[in-house]
Write a structure and sequence with these properties.
The protein is of the alpha/beta class. The chain contains eleven helices and eleven strands. The chain has helices at 21-34, 45-50, 84-96, 108-119, 144-164, 180-188, 204-216, 233-244, 264-282, 302-307, 314-324; strands spanning 8-13, 38-42, 54-56, 101-106, 123-128, 168-173, 193-195, 222-227, 248-252, 288-293, 296-301. Strands 3-2-1-4-5-10-11 form a seven-stranded mixed sheet, with helices on both faces. The chain has a four-stranded parallel sheet with strand order 7-8-6-9, sandwiched between helices. A hairpin with a 2-residue loop joins strand 10 (288-293) and strand 11. Helix 5 (144-164) packs across helix 6 (180-188) and helix 6 packs parallel to helix 11. The protein is elongated.
Length: 329
């Protein structure tokens, strides 16, 4: 039996914003229009869906947005949509506005909402948009490349002043409970210690000993990259300073990592993912997540995607640790 062709699709961004989301929105709108579809933008994620903050989108509406950070559709958390009643009402709103296919740009929580809508008869496609790189089915998530470059550049600057004052610096990066930003910056910035939620044993004395030994060898500064999932950087700095006698400062980079103009990679990959999401809907597909694996853009069943587990690669962690040792100093 032939699949009924869809005529109208919607697009929303949900959860935390990520640089490159606008490129994905732009691609969904323009690929949808060029495929003969009506495209509706939904403001403020699932919250906006329930409140029917829905507008028709034209190609002009997404002009000059690809270089902008954040999301032009805005985003919000929505506790109501976690309930069966909220999900049912979301499906009813989609049907009321003629939305037969919905593209959801966000993380695991956003995909869980898409999963529920698909079970209620709304064709849904998820696009991974999160700086955390914590979605197991894909090697790439929209925003990670920009966020990790933002963090890397900031850590370089902190290192300059840390060296000038012969300090120890604890720099806290984002990533929720995932250590990918911390791991990548640990390697890229040549940090002396990198604390990952997936691996940290909370042996602070080991860090203190490392700082003291490096200072004896003539090291003028000490950079500790601390992942958000561990946190408490200010308190850690006070304890380390008290134990070592070395001035120790904490810098929490925070939401600056979410903002800024997206890198070329985030613009291009997000655009391809947005186009692929539309193509899947046109082909009659639903309940899928777009991903990037082994150099290609692919798609997964959303149930399988949410069931997958992800961990930082052991080899990359080992390399990071081995390169942080100051053998000749």
């Amino acid at each position: 039996m032939a699949t009924k062709a869809i005529k109208t699709i919607g697009v929303l961004t949900s959860g935390g914003d990520a640089p490159g989301m606008n490129a994905a929105i732009r691609a969904v709108v323009r690929r949808g229009l060029s495929s003969g579809l009506n495209v509706k933008g939904i403001y403020k994620g699932y919250n906006g869906l329930l409140n029917e903050e829905i507008v028709d989108m034209t190609a002009r509406d997404v002009s000059d947005t690809i270089e902008r950070g954040g999301t032009v559709l805005y985003t919000a958390r929505c506790a109501e949509f976690r309930t069966p009643e909220g999900q049912q009402r979301g499906a009813e709103v989609c049907r009321k506005h003629g939305i037969e296919g919905l593209v959801v740009i966000g993380g695991d929580g956003s995909f869980a909402g898409a999963q529920k809508l698909a079970n209620l008869g709304i064709n849904t496609i998820g696009i991974p948009g999160t700086i955390d790189l914590d979605i197991a089915c894909t090697e790439y998530t929209i925003g990670f490349d920009t966020a990790v470059n933002t963090a890397m550049e900031a850590i370089d600057k902190v290192r300059d002043t840390s060296t000038s004052h012969e300090r120890c610096s604890i720099i806290e990066v984002m990533g929720r409970n995932a250590g990918y930003i911390a791991l990548w910056c640990g390697i890229a910035n040549g940090a002396e210690d990198v604390l990952l939620p997936e691996r940290y044993d909370y042996d602070e004395q080991k860090i203190i000993n490392n700082i003291i030994e490096n200072r004896k060898k003539g090291k003028k500064h000490h950079i500790i990259i601390n992942a958000e999932g561990i946190g408490h950087s200010e308190a850690m700095a006070k304890r380390i300073e008290a134990a070592t006698g070395i001035e120790t400062r904490a810098t929490i980079l925070g939401h600056m990592q979410r903002g800024g103009s997206p890198t070329c990679k985030d613009r291009v990959y997000a655009s391809i993912m947005g186009a692929k999401a539309v193509d899947l809907l046109v082909a009659g597909k639903s309940k899928r997540v777009v991903g990037y694996k082994h150099g290609d853009f692919v798609d997964f069943d959303i149930d399988e995607a949410l069931a997958m587990q992800k961990d930082v690669p052991d080899y990359q962690v080992e390399v990071c640790a081995s390169l942080s040792h100051n053998y000749s100093k």
